[in-house]
Amino acid sequence: xxxxxxxxxxAEAEGLGRREQKRRxxxxxxxxxxxxxxxxxxxxxxxxxEIAAAAGVSRRTxxxxxxxxxxxxxxxxxxxxxxxxxxxxxAPPASTILQLAENVVSPILEQFLDPEETRILEQLKRDTPAxxxxxxxxxxxxxxxxxxxxxxxxxxxxxxxxxxxxAILVAAVLRVAEEGWVDAVTSGVSARDHVRQVVSALEASLxxx
Length: 209
What we know:
It is built from eleven helices and no strands. By secondary structure, the chain is mostly helical. It folds into two domains: 5-68, Arc Repressor Mutant, subunit A (Orthogonal Bundle), CATH 1.10.10.60; 74-208, Tetracycline Repressor, domain 2 (Orthogonal Bundle), CATH 1.10.357.
């Protein structure tokens, strides 16, 4: 009996779903393996070949997922940036940019930044100058992402002065909240309360200025 079109389409979708699951699992295995080796041996003393071998894949497969060792460390921020941009575009109206930042950063922080992974990243950055430099570039990239989302939200250009300054404020809330995230979790502080503290401190600083 000939296969119906809808059956063929469903089988194709299931196949794509399985391939995507496999792809995500491989990427996750590479990330976890690299983190472990970086902590055990140090970032500079761990090679791509060692990461690939420990994860049970080829060197070629490693470079199919990541362009460099640094990309493995910061891989979480690809999905993070997309989610942050979407959250900004879809956020309800807010009276101030800091209120918008609080409403957006809290759930994103909780959803994407696992405290243990954040702790590992902070340790790696402390021990590795190259990663500290990459981290600075990460926030500049996120700032541009935020500016683009704010521009879509308001209809202004990303290069608009107000949009750029608002993006800096949202990025500042994100950065300070992320850097204090592990301590907040350890102290039993929720993501929303933690971000509220950051926003309150920034509001006080701006009022004083």
